[in-house]
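As agreed, record passed on underneath.
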Amino acid sequence: MKKLVLLALLLSSLAGWSQNPIAYDLFDKAIKKAEGGNTKGAIDDYSKAIRIDPLFASAYLNRALLKQKLGDIKGALNDVNTTIKIEPKRSDAYTTRADLNYKAKDYKSTIEDCTMSISLNEKDYIAYNLRGLSNFHAQNKKNACADFTKAIQLGSQSAVKNKKMFCK
């Protein structure tokens, strides 16, 4: 999970930049606080950046990841949904929402979000692995094993373990 949060923070910093330099500076401070373990301080800075620039998709997504880390699933879902409204072609937002849905055992929604993420970024091994897990729980072992295989081809180590465990 920690790797997913750090990966998503890094990926979201590449897109959805604010045109407002104050919002951007707050965003940068938030990333540094998150990296230093100050999750609540980072959330506060993302919130300030969002107040300045309400269309700052990367700030919403990063804040969602940190809310998820603190167990605020409803708040995280709200932020991810806002990210998707602002930038509907953002694959990492769909993968993040899929992860939230998976933890809520909503496998159908997880599969849908992973499929959308993969359609936007065919190299998203996290989405393939997560969709594989969801397919397994939805009693679709064939699709699960196919997803794990694809995730492995793309470099997922977790999928190697999942395939060994679920595709016997």
